[in-house]
Amino acid sequence: MRVITVSDDKTVLSELELLKKNTSFQFDYYTGSRNSLDVISFLFLKQQGYAIIDNDFLKNDTVKVISLLKQLNDQLNILFITSDNSVALGREICPLGVLLYLIKPFEYGTLKEALISFNKVGTQLTD
Fold this sequence. Notes:
Elements: E1 2-6, H1 10-22, E2 26-30, H2 36-46, E3 50-54, H3 55-58, H4 62-72, E4 77-82, H5 87-93, E5 100-103, H6 110-126
Parallel strand pairs: 1-2, 1-3, 3-4, 4-5
């Protein structure tokens, strides 16, 4: 399973690196420009089935980025992570069709369990 990650959160990235060492998962990391068009271009060009998008990285553009990505590729499975626990953000993000919504700090292993679960379901659906 290949996952694109848009984040510069050291805790998230280190957990994914551990996961990469212990599984067959592969990760492409985007830690470059915070410009929403750059992020959308990177994600669109990679054309993977899963993306982890960190709201803290994109700040105020996250809703716009996810909305546009889902319009370009409605098969993209988005795992959304944020440190913003406001109900207003949840109301904006959830209707966009995110697969998982995690509020930081989340327990170690949560991301790993979610990715393993999604990978199993995806494998069963295609077999």
